[in-house]
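Help needed: design a sequence for this.
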């Protein structure tokens, strides 16, 4: 039985490249670590070429980044000509502070609609919510696949690292906004981000009634930690997640291998989900 299961999983993995160009959607969530000049050898200038190499090797349809300053986002766009992005700076609604930008393959997808909202009691204006230490924002887009004509919603966020109330209320707000924003009931939905919370936390209870967990449901998956703390964290801290609906996950992977020219390209590992379109 174990041997049969292994063969089925292997066939599933081998089939991904054959479908990849048309029938699957690849999503990467990546906290790139903000441009902190005090990071020593891990400063952005030492990591940025490896971050770009990761994208070029993994070829996501959607790259959802957290903590990206405008200068970092600009570097991505200058060196990844196949991608365009949406998203505002969380501190002023323009270019100020960190972006939860969504980069998308412009040869395959076109933006139908997009927007941003803050995780606060006043989500439609630049604001800080509850007991949060920072402004927090959600960037979202509604995309049309030029190849298949199918549609995709993608939401990207970063929950507060301090405020417990803020994290709980943020998940409630995100769940409510997904329900109100999503008008196309057949479209695939993806929610990505650094949630600063283990998946078993009860803050996710409202969200789990609406979306499913890619790591849990993919037949090929792992249980590796997503936060590495520049190599100082144990390999079981999982705070980065991908949620989905109206798609079939076939692969989930924590990208922690030393294959991008530098082992630690951030203090978080990127996480990758591959989904069959329905």
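Sure. Designed sequence:
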């Amino acid at each position: 039985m174990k041997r049969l299961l292994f063969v089925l999983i292997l066939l599933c993995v081998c089939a991904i490249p054959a479908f990849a160009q048309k029938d699957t959607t690849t999503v990467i969530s990546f906290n790139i670590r903000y441009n902190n000049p005090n990071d020593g050898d891990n400063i952005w200038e030492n990591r940025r070429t490896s971050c770009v190499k990761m994208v070029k090797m993994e070829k996501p349809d959607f790259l959802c980044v957290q903590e990206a300053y405008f200068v970092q986002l600009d570097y991505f766009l200058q060196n990844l000509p196949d991608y365009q992005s949406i998203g505002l700076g969380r501190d002023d609604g323009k270019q100020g502070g960190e972006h939860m930008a969504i980069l998308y393959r412009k040869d395959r997808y076109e933006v139908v609609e997009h927007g941003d909202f803050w995780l606060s009691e006043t989500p439609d204006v630049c604001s800080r919510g509850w007991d949060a230490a920072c402004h927090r924002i959600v960037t979202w887009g509604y995309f049309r696949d030029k190849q298949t004509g199918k549609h995709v919603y993608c939401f990207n966020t970063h929950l507060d690292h301090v405020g417990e109330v803020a994290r709980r209320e943020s998940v409630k707000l995100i769940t409510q906004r997904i329900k109100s924003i999503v008008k196309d009931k057949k479209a695939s939905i993806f929610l990505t981000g650094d949630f600063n919370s283990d998946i078993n936390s009860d803050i996710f209870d409202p969200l789990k009634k609406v979306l499913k967990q890619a790591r849990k449901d993919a037949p090929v998956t792992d249980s590796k930690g997503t936060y590495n703390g520049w190599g100082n964290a144990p390999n079981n801290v999982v705070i980065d997640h991908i949620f989905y609906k109206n798609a079939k996950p076939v692969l989930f992977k924590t990208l922690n291998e030393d294959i991008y020219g530098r082992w630690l390209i951030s203090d978080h590992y990127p996480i990758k989900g591959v989904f069959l379109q329905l």
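Residues 133 and 162 are 6 Å apart (CA to CA).
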